[in-house]
Every structure is written in C-alpha cells, then in structure tokens.
C-alpha cells in the first residue's frame, strides 16, 4: 500500500504546476473552488501526501540556504493572494510553517502606513524581497494595489491601470536577479466564505479574526473576481505565472501550495556548496584540540 | 500508559523553570552537560513529550497573538546563546519552528556590520525587539558583546565591563514594556563540540556549516566558560533570569526550551479578546449576503 501511495504521488507530482497554471485568458469563473486538480485522492490521502512532502521540501530548502553560503544568489518568492478567509493564514501555518523558520521570511502586507503611502506602491515590496538562499513569502502583496485599490478606486483609474505593466517590469527584474517567483491565488467560493465567516462569529476564540467590514466587502464579490481575472490576464507571465489553487477544501490548498514549492525547488536543484578548506587537514587539526 | 505519560509530564512540568534557573553564583562548571534536570525519561520519552507540548504551546502562542489584536501589549523574547555547535539552529528548527511562523520573529545576530558598529551595541538589539503579541527569538544576542568581545578584547576592558550594567538596565526597560524575557544558555561540553565539529567535517552536506575558525576558538574554551559565568553572575536578574540548559543531548535541550516557553506563556495566561462588535447582529447581517 505504501508503494501504491508513493507511485500515485509520483504520477501527480510533476503535474501540479501544469494543472494549476493560469495563463492569460484562463476563465476564473470556470474553475470549481471545490475541485482538486492534479490530485485524485481524498482528504486523508491529501493530508498524508502533505506530511510526506514536508521532509522533501525541508531538504530542498536547506540546500537552497546552504548554496547561498557558498556564494549562490538564488532565492524563492511565494506570493499568496486570496479573498478574506481564503486560507492564507493556514498556508502560512501549515505549509510555510513546515520548513525551517531560519530559511523563511514571511511579510504580511496590511493597508499601507502613512510612511508607505508617501512612496510608490512597490517601495515596501522591494524592501521585503528575499535574500539569497531564502524563501520569501508574501501574505498579500503588490497585487492588493490592483485588487482592493481597483475595486474601491482608492487611486484614480489611470493610476491603477498603469500598475499591471509596472508589476510585470518589476517581477522581471526580480526574476533576473535569481529569484523564482511563485504566485498563488487561493480561489474560494462566495458560499464557502459565508460559512467560514459564520464560524468566526460562532466561535469566541475566532472573534479576533472577524471584522464587520468583511461582510461589507462581500457586496463587491463580483468586482473582486473581475479584478482577479484582470490580474491573471495581464500579469501571468512566463517568468512569473499565476497558479489558481481551488481552496474550498483547505487540505487540498495546503497540499497544492506545498507541491508547487517542491516542484519549483526541484527545478532549481540547489547544491551543497563545496568546502573551501582542506577537510583532511582540518580533521587533523581538530583531533589535536 | 497514556495516562502515566501525562501524569509524568505534569509532575515535571512546573519544575523546568526552577530546575534550570541559574541565579548569580550558580557554578557553571558544576552543571553536567549530559544531565537532564527536571526530566527523568529517556530520549524516546523526551521526543514524545516534545511532540505533545507542541499543541499546547501553539495554542498559547495563538492566544498571545490574538490578545494583541484586542489591544494587548505583551510579548515574549527568547534569547538563545551557546558555544558553536551547541544546537542553536536545532532549537530554531525544532522548537521555534513548531509554532505558527506568523507569531514568531527570529533575529540571527552575526558579527556587527560596519553600520551597526557605528552605533552603541544595543542599537541593533532594540530594533529587533518583538512587537506586541509576538514571540521574538534571538539567535545570539547582545550577550555576544560580553562574550566573544570579552574573550578577544574586541573593545577595551573598561568598555565591555560597563556593559553588564547597561544590559540589566536595558532588559529591565524591555520587561517594563510588557515583554517576558527568557534567556537560555545551551551548555555543551568541549568533547561534545569536538564530536559535532568532526561530524560537520565528515559529512559533505555539513561542510557549509563549518568554519576553520571554529577550531581556533576551541583554544579559548576556558575563557568562554569564564565569560558565561560572568554573564550569569552579573546578568541573571529577577526580571530576566538565565536558564542553563544542558545540551549534550539535543533531545533534552529541545524539550527543555519548549517547556520553558510553555511555562512562561502559561504564566502570562493570554486571553482571547472580547468582540468589539455585536455578534448576533453581525450573524444576521451575514446571513443576508
């Protein structure tokens, strides 16, 4: 059985990047938020697959980190977007949290501060880019500047509509410097959001996560979907494609993001750096101490 | 059996803070680095206890984080010190890495940069203090400024000898602002360090962690122990006591630090914030959307 599971995992392993990739023109509305593309198992199988992936991704992450100590400049940037309650926090906790925290750098982008508002929208983003060897993670990102900003016209239309091109130019320069960009949209249904918000209201230990404004935002659901569609159409590029991860099933979303991490890290194939000292001589020297 | 394990854990639970606390005058040389104070189980039992603690600490961490969203100002600062190979990285990975990365902020202090050297030694430390609700973790810390700096006289003696008092004043002000400080010294033997350095040399996937200077530093072992003794004698205070964690057994060191975290968080007893909105009214409003 263990063997079956492994071969099942392997057969789907290479396909998540393909199954979830959303090139321009991909119709968001046609993607079922409860579907599990690239995986044909159930919740239990998905959780088992996630647990198995953890060691593999941890090993790859350590190699990436080690490579940078030998002069490597490569890094990874995982961008996570999604509507309220889409499960961004769960990705941080259960996927990102599964690898060594020393090799991960999470930045959570809130509404910009007064200081941040004085600068171009990419200013705070640049400051949060991952160092060589690191896996940077953005919980929300520069895409908010063409999502909530577009939906509520927080800046004039002429201004936000220029941002798609600015984002593409920016991401190209980031990729050129050795950063692999993985952009994930956690795709939930309006009904699923309702039930998650209901849970937050019904459980006193979840009240702190609730904001009455979350309900008001639901009136703009269609506008947000349109804004996400525009993001896919305009900013899913070869150097930084978007992946749409159906997220009504939390276990699948977590498995999918972990798998995307794994596939991109395997692509990078980071190497242990070669010693820049004489190993035998050092062993001899150590013995004498 | 499960019951036995639980009661065993409970009986030792309250005692780690007491068993490991090193008040001024505690003789470092008299503490066996292979001992397991506060715990009478073996490695397997220790690993099981660590796994069980994870959920408890995760829950407490989430409460602390939530509390800050309701206006709470409390936070935790875990300071981790120890000789090379003492297991600081393992603590980051296996203890700190076991809780939600969104609630944790690790700062790894290296040799100060040119910019940092222009400022007083506490300048970079202040910038890294945890925000309300967070568990800040220092991998090395301001104590390096009275450890390596003292051993190698990197600044004049008159200057480093003033720092103990400056550190106490600083830590008192940090505690006054609501931060619980937990200072941990991972205590290993010179022999154990030798075997860990040997492993780093014998395994190509560990070469990147090795630095020939680590062997040279072994000549100053006694000086470092003396410097740690001075730290305990001068900077183990009521608001920020030192805990000496025997660390020749990695499993014990990890269990002990997790347990120290747990005991201090339990002491804080963080509370879910009370909703500042009308729950029933919001539920009604949500239903209509």
Question: What does this protein look like?
Answer:
Chains A, B: This is Polyphosphate kinase (Could be polyphosphate AMP phosphotransferase (Pap)). Chains A, B: Residues 1-43 are annotated as: Disordered. Chains A, B: GO terms for molecular function: polyphosphate kinase activity. The structure is a homodimer of 289-residue chains. Chain A is α/β, with parallel strands linked by helices and 289 residues long. The first copy, chain A, has 13 helices and 6 strands. The first copy, chain A, has a 6-stranded mixed beta sheet, with helices on both faces. In chain A, helix 3 (43-69) packs parallel to helix 12 (250-268). The longest helix of chain A has 27 residues, at 43-69. Chain A is globular. The interface between A and B is large, with 41 and 41 residues.
List the helices and strands and how they pair.
Two copies of one chain form a homodimer.
Chain A lengths: L1 H12 L2 H5 E2 L20 H27 L5 E8 L5 H7 L9 E5 L5 H4 L5 H4 L8 E5 L8 H4 L5 H20 L2 E9 L2 H13 L9 H6 L3 H15 L6 E5 L3 H19 L10 H9 L2
Helix pairs in contact in A: 3-12
CATH topology of chain A: Rossmann fold
Q: Indicate how many domains the architecture of chain A comprises.
A: 1
Our count of helices of chain A gives: 13
The main β sheet of chain A shows up as: 6 strands, mixed
CATH class of chain A: Alpha Beta
Give the beta-strand count of chain A.
6
Shape of chain A: globular
Architecture of chain A in CATH? Answer: 3-Layer(aba) Sandwich
